[in-house]
TrEMBL record:
InterPro entries the UniProt entry points to: Na/Pi_transpt (IPR003841)
Organism: Coralloluteibacterium thermophilum
TM stretches of this protein: 54-74, 81-105, 111-128, 135-153, 173-191, 198-224, 244-263, 284-305
Protein name: Na/Pi cotransporter family protein
Recorded topology in the membrane: Multi-pass membrane protein
Highest taxon of source: Bacteria
Keywords: Cell membrane, Membrane, Transmembrane, Transmembrane helix
Record has Transmembrane as a keyword: yes
Cell compartment(s), UniProt: Cell membrane
Length: 543
């Protein structure tokens, strides 16, 4: 291949990758709520999970994007691992659509006719639009560049099949199949895109550069190579992210292990299918069918063992889950789909709530362990910092719901930090065990009313009852003012020593501030959840 042809090939690959990135990123933002809804529907059954994975991957043209979004749903508690595995399997089948686009459009249509209008219209929407309209424009630009890259690849391979001496390479037999499978895998690792490898393979086969059997082996190798994306992605990721990625690796390896020995049979079946569908039996079409058949073969083989795979994965990658200060739901790969990131933030904020409320109840018992409260506050601070940092990394992308919800997430984290700080102060402010009965009765009443507020503000499954919370808060405030006045009168008459009076009032003040932070956190958290559920713009958080 001449230097000019090599540069033409490299430029075509670059355009293809750029188009895929723009198209995938734009569609993820444009279809944000719809993507969330489709993935939520996958929780009904594993079969529906597979169907959702196929459909969404066909929509956004990126199996990696769908797999990482699925990981985000697992991390956010909206989908369990068994349901997520179905979506991962479906994404592996859905990614074969790229082969069909290349085969049916790339070699039968003037790609310039498709590409230029798409780029022109897309740039218009991207520049003049905002929010999802701009994202749709970005996707259209990516669509056009995708076809420009494919056209460049087609041109770079045209007529060079006889110039490159492939006769010297073993294109048949075990070693030939393994060699070209390795080439497909290496190309995918280098370009971090199995779609790009498929485009190169199909155009090379159509140009006569690569024999059909060798090209089919490269397609299988690309399936194995795509696992590198998942393996790179789970470095430092959550345990659930690693489990979902491991399911993707298992599917890809099983598919390759089954498809390579059956390569001649699958190719013959692909030719037969093309003929009976009325399609031309040109190499690109046969390879597209082969790609789909091999993915379906892998799905058929792994499906009966899915329960065992899920059970096995559930016992792996558990290291770090015991550290309560380590985030369990915040996954960096979900940042590209902001609505999913809001779900992850909600689940992590609920973990903050558990720690903050536990500290408050422990401090309220008047028997708190100071060292344990200090350790729990350090844990909560680490988790809160991670939540605030993650919220600052979520791109709004012009989505009004996301832009308005993120400050609420930060407020909730800060309110729970405030609860923890006051709880530690409350724990250090112990009362004497021999208070006079009338004073002890006042303290007990204050504690009971405080417990009622804590109960009403504790986030649990379901929606918080804010009306009940506000009623409990009003009841505590009335009791606080009455008890404070009673204690001050007792102190003024000399019925209560100054040291005891100050300690009781300090304790009541710390408790009051704890409950105020808990009420504000609950209101903001409820607002955040409503925004994620109904798509409405959340109101400003309680100040």
């Amino acid at each position: 291949m001449s230097p000019d042809a090599l540069l033409h090939f490299a430029g075509g690959v670059g355009l293809f990758l750029l188009g895929m990135r723009l198209m995938s990123d734009g569609l993820k933002v444009a279809a944000g709520p719809a993507l969330r809804g489709l993935l939520s529907a996958a929780t009904a059954s594993r079969a529906r999970g597979v169907a959702s994975g196929v459909l969404i991957t066909a929509l956004v043209q990126s199996s990696s994007a769908v797999i990482f979004a699925t990981i985000g749903f697992v991390n956010a508690g909206l989908m369990n691992l068994a349901q997520a595995v179905g979506v991962v399997f479906g994404a592996n089948v859905g990614t074969t659509l790229t082969s069909w686009i290349v085969a049916l459009v790339g070699f039968n249509v003037d790609l310039q006719v498709l590409a230029m209008p798409a780029v022109a219209l897309g740039m218009g929407l991207w520049i003049l639009g905002g929010g999802r309209r701009a994202a749709l424009g970005q996707a259209l630009v990516g669509f056009g560049i995708f076809f420009l890259g494919l056209d460049a690849l087609k041109g770079s391979f045209a007529g060079i099949g006889t110039e490159v001496g492939l006769d010297a390479l073993p294109t048949r037999g075990l070693w030939g199949i393994l060699l070209f499978a390795a080439v497909g895998g290496v190309l995918t690792v280098l370009m971090q895109s199995s779609s790009a490898t498929l485009a190169v393979t199909l155009t090379a086969a159509a140009g006569g550069l690569v024999p059909l059997t060798a090209a089919a082996a490269m397609v299988v190798g690309a399936k194995v190579g795509t696992t590198s994306t998942a393996l790179f992605a789970v470095i430092g990721a959550t345990p659930d992210a690693r489990r979902a990625a491991a399911a993707h690796v298992a599917f890809s390896l099983l598919t390759a292990a089954a498809a390579l020995p059956m390569l001649p049979l699958l190719l013959e079946a692909s030719r037969w299918t093309a003929a009976h569908l009325g399609l031309e039996t040109q190499p690109a079409t046969v390879l597209a069918i082969f790609h789909t058949l091999s993915a379906l073969l892998g799905l058929a083989l792994i499906w009966p063992f899915t329960d065992r795979l899920v059970a096995w994965l559930g016992g792996r990658f558990a290291r770090g889950e015991a550290d309560e200060g380590q985030p369990r739901h915040l996954d960096r790969h979900v940042l590209g789909t902001p609505r999913l990131a809001l779900d992850a933030l909600d689940m992590e904020l609920r973990r903050l709530a558990v720690i903050a409320h536990r500290m408050a109840r422990s401090a309220l018992s008047n028997e708190a362990d100071d060292a344990r409260l200090a350790a729990e506050q350090a844990v909560l601070d680490r988790l809160a910092e991670a939540v605030i940092g993650y919220a600052g990394s979520v791109p709004g992308g012009g989505d009004a719901v996301v832009d308005a919800a993120l400050p609420n997430a930060v407020r909730v984290a800060q309110y729970y930090r405030g609860m923890a700080e006051r709880a530690e102060e409350l724990g250090r402010t112990r009362l004497a065990a021999d208070l006079p009965p009338d004073q002890q009765a006042l303290v007990d009443r204050l504690h009971r009313d405080g417990q009622a507020v804590l109960d009403a503000s504790q986030p649990r499954s379901g929606t918080l009852d804010l009306a009940a919370l506000d009623a409990a808060s009003a009841g505590f405030e009335a009791a606080y003012q009455e008890i404070k006045a009673t204690l001050l009168r007792a102190g003024g008459r000399g019925e209560l020593g100054p040291a005891t009076l100050v300690r009781i009032l300090d304790r009541a003040s710390f408790l009051r501030r704890i409950l105020d932070q808990a009420r504000k956190a609950a209101h903001c958290l409820a607002t955040l959840e409503r925004a994620a559920d109904d798509g409405g713009v959340p109101a400003p958080g309680t100040a």
